[in-house]
Specification:
Blueprint: H1 2-71, H2 76-79, H3 81-85, E1 88-90, E2 99-103, H4 105-117, E3 122-124, E4 129-132, E5 139-142, E6 147-150, E7 157-160, E8 171-175, E9 179-190, E10 207-211, E11 214-227, E12 233-235, E13 244-250, E14 253-257, E15 270-275, E16 278-283, E17 286-288, E18 299-304, E19 307-312, E20 315-317, E21 321-327, E22 332-338, E23 341-343, E24 347-353, E25 359-365, E26 368-371, E27 378-380, E28 388-394, E29 397-400, E30 413-415, E31 418-424, E32 427-429, E33 436-440, E34 447-451, E35 454-456, E36 471-477, E37 480-486, E38 489-491, E39 501-505, E40 509-513, E41 518-520, E42 524-528
Parallel strand pairs: 1-3, 2-4, 3-6, 4-7, 5-8, 6-9, 7-9, 8-10, 9-11, 10-12, 11-13, 11-14, 12-15, 13-16, 14-17, 15-18, 16-19, 17-20, 18-21, 19-22, 20-23, 21-24, 22-25, 23-26, 24-27, 25-28, 26-29, 27-30, 28-31, 29-32, 30-33, 31-34, 32-35, 33-36, 34-37, 35-38, 36-39, 37-40, 38-41, 39-42
């Protein structure tokens, strides 16, 4: 009986112990779960807190940007620290709209001033249209040293508002003071020509990029278009001593300028590029005007008053002159014009030399010119009032592609005041006149060398009232110095209607050598009237 009761007691105690330990184990397990849940909840809350901080920071930055825009507080480094570190600011940080309707000039001016004051060199434009309407002293956007303006290509457009040429000569980028180390790339500057016609004033200027005194100017991959005024790029001034040095204009496009702008019939003087500089490079640019009917073109692609100019690889279509080569206010020396293609251009080059300024060592080489208007390819008389020292015309291809003329036409090269002229290895084809008319002046004894040229079906005119029409090389005027005509080929496709006389000499030469030339279907080879 005792043993039975003892067993019951032991069983009860064991049951109590089992229940007690089960309670302890379960209580510990749920405590761990609770702690795990609390830990997870803490992590979630911490993540939310970080997100809230980040969102608050973004809101704070947006509010700060709003304050900058509204109160003109220029503290961009706090908003865009990375850009500031990269020496770059964006015009979008200064409140521009870029909608083509709102005047963005004031906001862009603030960006320029901030960049100048904080020694930041790059100013970036997004691919938007920025209307420019207001100016300060006739300038939309001032230039300062050590600034480069960068766009995103063709879709980054600086658009001039309409009606701006009526009351002045507005300028997009310009400096009246000395600037250095300035650059422009990947922008479109639209002068909005049809909205800026000025029928009551002749020769209104509308400069896109300009400075009177500058050093190290680089203009690359800019599209300039629709300029109804004068001069698109203008660097330099009318000072005797050049104030501009080291200019490069490359891979740009100039479209619709001068009377290439529809309805622009009064602005009669336009040069896409006008540079008075020491060391000027102009290469791989495109100049295009639409063909104009019932009106002569008035625009010049490149006007250089520069020493050490290199003008190469440009394409020019439907202009009056490809080049104005000028020494009217200062010298123009040691310069070359090479490998340019000129389609439907009246003249390859027009020369201007005044006031005893020096023009020397000019090379015009390996260019192609097609003419549709019968006129000279090289104008060397009217504006050459001081003799040119040395000029070389070499390896050019000159062809007239218009209809056969019945009117007066000038020879391809008209020369009056050149001390040393070389015409070598060129091709002259279908010209409605001869190749050269040289008329030396009293007191000048020029040296002229004419070698290795091909004259093909020139004298291509029905007019006969001038000896110049059907003579390949006509030399007259006062006495000359040295003359060499050798190795040239003058050929006609038929016996009549083209060159009739190869060479005519109407003046005396101290030394002359008429060499060995080929005359094919030419009735009179050489006529020396001073033998």
């Amino acid at each position: 009986m005792k043993n039975r009761n003892l067993n019951k007691l032991i069983f009860i105690i064991m049951a109590i112990l089992i229940v007690f330990f089960s309670f302890l184990i379960n209580n510990s397990f749920f405590s761990m779960l609770e702690k795990k849940e609390v830990s997870n909840l803490h992590q979630v809350n911490e993540f939310k807190a970080k997100a809230d901080v980040s969102r608050d920071s973004e809101i704070k930055d947006e509010q700060q940007l709003k304050i900058v825009k509204e109160n003109n507080v220029l503290d961009i480094a706090k908003i865009e620290p990375k850009a500031a570190q990269e020496n770059t600011i964006y015009v979008s940080q200064f409140g521009v709209r870029g909608d083509g309707k709102t005047d963005d000039a004031p906001a862009i001016r603030k960006a320029i001033q901030y960049a100048r004051d904080n020694k930041i060199s790059k100013i970036v434009f997004d691919a938007k249209t920025y209307l420019l309407s207001s100016t300060v002293n006739g300038i939309y956007l001032p230039l300062y040293s050590n600034l480069t303006f960068i766009g995103k290509g063709e879709k980054t457009v600086l658009l001039q508002a309409g009606g701006k040429l009526e009351n002045g000569d507005p300028k997009i980028f310009f400096s009246e003071d000395y600037v250095e180390n300035i650059g422009f790339s990947n922008l479109t500057i639209d002068l909005n020509g049809t909205a800026n016609l000025c029928p009551q004033v002749i020769k209104r200027a509308n400069i896109a990029i300009g400075a009177k005194r500058a050093r190290n100017v680089n203009i690359s991959k800019i599209i300039f278009k629709n300029n109804a005024g004068r001069q698109t790029i203008m660097l330099g001034s009318s000072l005797k001593n050049k104030g501009v040095f080291d200019v490069v204009v490359s891979n740009c496009k100039f479209i619709n300028v001068g009377n290439g702008v529809k309805g622009n019939n009064i602005q009669t003087d336009h040069s896409c590029i006008y540079v008075v500089a020491e060391r000027f490079t102009c290469n791989n640019n495109t100049f295009y005007n639409p063909p104009i009917s019932n009106q002569l073109p008035v625009s010049t692609a490149i006007e250089s008053h520069s020493d050490f100019a290199r003008v190469e690889g440009n394409t020019i279509s439907n202009f009056k002159n490809a080049f104005n080569i000028v020494a009217t206010v200062s010298s123009h020396v040691n310069s070359s014009y090479r490998n340019n293609t000129c389609n439907n251009v009246m003249r390859l080059a027009e020369f201007w030399v005044w006031n005893n300024n020096t023009m020397d060592n000019i090379i015009i080489e390996n260019n192609k010119l097609t003419q549709i208007i019968p006129t000279e390819a090289f104008s060397l008389t009217k504006q050459v009032k001081t003799p040119i020292n040395n000029l070389v015309i070499s390896q050019n291809y000159i062809e007239y592609v218009g209809s056969r003329s019945s009117k007066y036409s000038f020879p391809s090269i008209i020369s009056a005041s050149i001390k040393n002229l070389t015409i070598e290895n060129n091709v002259f084809k279908n010209l409605p006149s001869g190749v050269l008319l040289s008329t030396s002046k009293v007191g000048e004894t020029p040296k002229i060398t004419i070698t290795g040229n091909k004259v093909i079906d020139c004298g291509n005119t029905n007019a006969n009232n001038s000896i110049t029409y059907h003579t390949a090389f006509l030399l007259n005027g006062t006495d000359g110095g040295e003359l060499l005509i050798d190795g040239n080929t003058i050929q006609n496709s038929s016996d009549k209607g083209f060159i009739e006389r190869g060479v005519i000499l109407d003046n005396n030469w101290r030394r002359k050598n008429l060499g060995s030339n080929v005359y094919d279907k030419v009735s009179s080879k050489i006529l020396d009237n001073r033998k």
